[in-house]
C-alpha cells in the first residue's frame, strides 16, 4: 500500500493498516500509529499496545480473534492528534476495512475514535463503556491504553467496561472463541 492521499505519507516509515483475522466480529479502532508502530508496520506494538494486549487477555481476546486498526494509517509526527484533513483523507480506507471485516462490535480506543464512530460530541470521561447500535453495529469506547498508563486511577472503570465488552461478545459474536 503506497497511499499518498495526505501529507502524512511524507514522514512515515510504514503504512500501518491493521492486524487480525479478516472476518473478526470484534474490531478495535484507535487514533493513529505511534513511533514503534510506524517502525514495525503493526498497530499497538509499543507500551500502550502491550497494555492493550493485557486488557484483551483479561477477557479472552487477542490479536488472533479480533481486529485492530487506526483511523489514520500513517504516523502523525510527534504523536500529535490526526488533523481533520488527514482523518478525512484516510477515512475511505477504514470504511472499506469495516465493510470487508463486517464486525458485530466496534470498540473505540480513546476520545478521537469515539467522536468519529459514535458521536461527534462524545465525552470519554462520562460515556466510556456505554453501548449504542448504529447501522447494525454495536459500538462502545474505552479509555485509550496510553491514558490508562498515564492515569492508573482509570483502570477500575476500564475493568468494568471490559467485563461489559466480554458480555457483548458472548451475546453477539457466536464465532468468536474466547481464550483461557
Ligand atoms: S494517513 Fe491514510 S490517507 Fe494519509 S497517506 Fe497514510 S494511508 Fe494515505
Q: What are the SSEs and their pairings?
A:
Layout: E1 26-30, H1 35-40, H2 47-58, E2 67-70, H3 84-101, E3 105-109, H4 111-117, H5 124-127, E4 132-134, E5 137-142, H6 145-150, H7 155-172
Parallel strand pairs: 1-2, 1-3, 3-5
Antiparallel strand pairs: 4-5
The structure holds iron/sulfur cluster.
Residues 3-6, 8-9, 15, 72-74, 86, 89-90, 93 line the site of iron/sulfur cluster.
Can you give a write-up of this model?
- The protein has helices at 35-40, 47-58, 84-101, 111-117, 124-127, 145-150, 155-172; strands at residues 26-30, 67-70, 105-109, 132-134, 137-142.
- It contains seven helices and five strands.
- It has a single domain, classed as Uracil-DNA glycosylase-like domain (Uracil-DNA Glycosylase, subunit E, 3-Layer(aba) Sandwich).
- Strands 2-1-3-5-4 form a five-stranded mixed beta sheet, with helices on both faces.
- The mean pLDDT is 96.
- The structure holds iron/sulfur cluster.
